[in-house]
């Protein structure tokens, strides 16, 4: 028997340090995360405060950033880490993505030196939790329509509005909030406990249950002038952070798919149907073969995009192509694997339907599949079809 990685000789394309990083995180995930994730999902809880410092000690928070306690790892190393974390659960990779690729990236790219010194070391260590407030109840795919406002009041700023679907929002120490000001979209650092700022955890989720999701409200929130990110002007600033997060999803979603396929193969080899293993039937083997090819080719694309990113040459439409492909391949594999497990596939004794439920969110967030299709369509034709 061969694995998908062996079938496509994937390890031969990785540097020794990349394999070491991947294997270290895979070992941590197997020992510390995997034994508990089904319970977290079932209970709709996630121990952010307990796990973040462990992730920080491993250098996984803001790992692609340089300085301020961040290790400055390569894009491929970051992608492989996302793959191993999401092989356990998408919610765990989301914590790392939101902390590092969204909140920390926004401060690192657009913050003042004082803001970077104040927040980034603690966030890299996992002792300070961050969140990223862009999406609103009525504006997801069209963030440019946001209604959250920032108005000058003397030397201060006053924020009014709301945000929704904010990962880590109700447990974060600081939230990067994007608001419409007189001169365009601006970013602000809003510490927890600021008067007028409330965050409530969202309940009754059927997806990403092992993750904290919040709704944020800003009612006359007064901030000092130095709360604004000085280098963030216009919608391009938050969108550049989203591109960083999407890159992690390219690898991460395939970790969930790999876990589903591995589970289905193991199950099929041991489950007997009509006096022989399920794996011995042609229909089962056809399913497994097709999924292996889909997963392997998607992993090759992810690695190629990682190499392009490490050269500093990646384009937004390339990230869109990767995110669109990985999320669609992953959810298709998860659903097909569920059929191989039969009724057992719907229980938390196996990870397959949990992954499938999570991937419904992955298909949607950081740009829906439809939005990425239109991004690619515009790149291919030169015509914008968003409106």
Automatic annotation (TrEMBL):
GO molecular function: fatty-acyl-CoA binding; flavin adenine dinucleotide binding; glutaryl-CoA dehydrogenase activity
UniProt domain Acyl-CoA oxidase/dehydrogenase middle: residue ranges: 131-221
UniProt key word Transit peptide: yes
Domain Acyl-CoA dehydrogenase/oxidase N-terminal: 16-126
Pfam families found in the cross-reference section: Acyl-CoA_dh_1 (PF00441), Acyl-CoA_dh_M (PF02770), Acyl-CoA_dh_N (PF02771)
Keywords associated with the record: FAD, Flavoprotein, Oxidoreductase, Transit peptide
GO biological process: fatty acid beta-oxidation using acyl-CoA dehydrogenase; fatty-acyl-CoA biosynthetic process
Domain Acyl-CoA dehydrogenase/oxidase C-terminal: 233-380
UniProt family annotation: Belongs to the acyl-CoA dehydrogenase family.
Name listed for the protein in its UniProt record: Acyl-CoA dehydrogenase
Classification of source organism: Bacteria, Bacillati, Actinomycetota, Actinomycetes, Mycobacteriales
